[in-house]
Amino acid sequence: MRRWISQGSQFEAEFGYARAVVDGAWIHVSGTTGFDYETMTLPEDVIGQCRQALANIAAALAQAGASCDDVVRVRYYLLDAGEFSALAPLLRAHFAAARPAATMLVVAGLIDPRLRIEIEVTAHRPETFAAS
């Protein structure tokens, strides 16, 4: 059974996607940025953007009955590889229990030139993980 999770972002409606898709035990969270979707504000610094992106991801996972501890795969998209070391403690704090497979990509740009980072994750819901 598939269901879609929305956080009410104008981008979801504009570009025709869901913040997350729950497909059976799996949760696929779209590339997530540091926009606060309630206020549509964006921190200027990469740490603030990363913190908000992680909060957005955690909220989507919670709606699907999971948490960051259930993440099995994470992909980071950064504009500047030099910013990763500043983000490492924050990322470690969110994913220490899960220790997901991870990929870090340095990209030429993201959809909005103000964006510094985008994060996408895949999680497996705990109640079905033990049974599989």
Detailed description of the structure:
- The chain has 132 residues and is of the alpha+beta class.
- Helix content is 30%, strand content 28%.
- Strand 4, helix 3 (84-95) and strand 5 (101-106) form a beta-alpha-beta unit.
- The model has no long low-confidence stretch (mean pLDDT 92).
**For the report, how would you describe the main beta sheet?**
6 strands, mixed
Query: What structural category arises from helix and sheet content?
Result: alpha+beta
Terminal CA distance reads: 16 Å
How many helical elements? 4
Q: Helix and strand string, N-terminal first?
A: EHEEHEHEEH
Unreliable runs: none
As a whole number of angstroms, the C-alpha radius of gyration is 14 Å
Strand order of the largest sheet: 1-2-3-6-4-5
Give a summary of the structure in a few sentences.
By secondary structure, this protein is of the alpha+beta class.
Element layout with pairings:
Layout: E1 2-5, H1 10-15, E2 20-23, E3 26-32, H2 46-63, E4 71-78, H3 84-95, E5 101-106, E6 117-124, H4 126-129
Parallel strand pairs: 4-5
Antiparallel strand pairs: 1-2, 2-3, 3-6, 4-6
Keywords:
alpha+beta; 6-stranded mixed β-sheet; 4 helices; 6 strands; globular
